[in-house]
Design goal:
Layout lengths: L1 H27 L35 H6 L4 E3 L3 E4 L11 E4 L6 E2 L6 E4 L4
Parallel strand pairs: 1-5
Antiparallel strand pairs: 2-3, 4-5
This protein binds zinc ion.
GO biological process, one term: mitochondrial electron transport, NADH to ubiquinone
InterPro entries: Znf_CHCC (IPR019401)
GO cellular component, one term: mitochondrion
Length: 120
């Protein structure tokens, strides 16, 4: 009889201990947030970081803006070029780009850049 009461008391104390420790652990865990390509970054004590306590936040380091900037501008002889981003499902609606003004001109959909050969 005494042993069963003692077991119950131990279970109760463990439950209380865990009930007290869980919120404290959540509130005390401060992790540094990783910024996304949109600039979203939470402060270290933000409650929304609780979702990353068991698994780290995964952010793609290969941002599309940086990748497309590595592609050199395509030199063309015409005043007007069109871009459809590639073929089939990889592409986008065809847009025409005027190259009369100096410098390179980028496609609004995919970011590919075009430059007129004699413009510089
Ligand atoms: Zn394009």
């Amino acid at each position: 009889m005494n042993s069963s009461i003692a077991r119950i008391q131990v279970k109760q104390s463990l439950l209380l201990k865990n009930a007290i420790n869980v919120p404290r652990r959540c509130m005390a865990a401060k992790t540094e947030d990783i910024g996304t390509h949109t600039g979203q970054k939470w402060q270290s004590d933000d409650y929304r970081l609780a979702r990353f306590m068991n698994a780290p936040k995964q952010v793609n380091k290969n941002w599309a803006v940086k990748l497309i900037a590595k592609v050199p501008p395509k030199q063309v002889a015409d005043r007007i070029v069109w871009c459809d981003g590639g073929s089939g499902a990889e592409g986008h609606p065809r847009v025409y780009i005027n190259l009369d003004k100096p410098g390179d001109h980028s496609c609004g959909y995919c970011g590919l850049r075009f430059i007129k050969k004699d413009s510089h």
